[in-house]
Amino acid sequence: MAAQKLERVLKLLAELLNAESPRTADELRNKIKMYPNDLKAFRRAFNRDKNALKEMGVPIVVVSVGASNKDSESYYVDNKEYYLPDLNLDDQELAALNYAANSVHLLDQITEEEALRKLGGYSEATGTEKSNLRVSIDNNLTLLFESLNRKNRVNFLYRDKLRTVEPYLLQFVGGKWYLTANVLEEETIKSFRTDRMSDVTVNPQAHQYSIPDQVNGANLVSFSYGDDPPIKAIVRIDNSYVPWVEQNLDVNVDRGPDGSGIAEFSVLNYDIFIDRVLLLLNHAEILEPPILRERIIKRLQMIRDGGKVENA
């Protein structure tokens, strides 16, 4: 498989696995951005990629959304059907795993031999044929994948704060890897970018926790990450700006009789949230809570007076 097609197929698999709802072919095309512009060429390439995944054993589910033609079909991969709870490889499967590891080189981190030892599948009788395929992997993924598989708790530094977590989900979104985990000190579920972690250590005791049946992945709305006390913000939005808010801030807006909208946000970073509201100029107003109203008024006064805008 050519390198470009391999990358496209892997991106298609990632989108199907991470989608919170079934995706149409056009939605996948817009997300992946590697398919031809010509519609017929796109459909041929998309069908070939689907078939390649099916031949690999990926359980692609097709959902009809109304009409009977192909344009009305949506697709997703059922995570429970795709992911294995435990490898339990036999000798023949271990031999195949050895061959696969000899075909892929992990850059800058573990060798194929070390990876196999971690999986319990190393064998001296490996084949000598190797490909030139090289896959980049960030420094922490090996430890995190292993801890997720064995359900080990993990410690790491993130923004200069020590965290102890129970890993629930690893996902590749927007070119970055994210770990969604239960943070023990805070008794809450959060997502972390793996390349921003440091001093990652894995507790040697396995099977320390259970993963819930439903785990939501990384939320990439910036003001929902931070160390400010969590609050709910209620914002009134002018009619003409409601579509922009729904699309760019990932929130449902309740429309009033005059067409204006009321939106509710979960905020953990007050200053970034105020930055987003100010993008709407006088077309949005923070109604609650008072602390955010006071902060945005202070910010506007500083802008008016020509003062330097600092984090409140």
Report on the structure:
With 312 residues, the chain is of the alpha+beta class. It folds into three domains: 3-82, Orthogonal Bundle (Arc Repressor Mutant, subunit A); 138-219, SH3 type barrels (Roll), CATH 2.30.30; 231-304, Alpha-Beta Plaits (2-Layer Sandwich), CATH 3.30.70. The protein has helices at 3-18, 25-32, 39-55, 79-82, 91-103, 112-119, 141-150, 242-248, 270-278, 290-304, and strands at 23-24, 60-64, 73-77, 105-106, 134-135, 154-158, 161-173, 176-183, 188-193, 198-202, 231-237, 253-255, 261-267, 284-288. The strands form four sheets. Strands 9-8-7-6-10 form a five-stranded antiparallel sheet. It has a four-stranded antiparallel sheet with strand order 12-13-11-14, with helices on one face. A three-stranded antiparallel sheet has the order 1-3-2. β2 and β3 form a beta hairpin. α5 (91-103) packs antiparallel against α6. It is globular, with a radius of gyration of 24 Å. The model is unreliable at 102-110, 116-123 and 125-136 (pLDDT under 50).
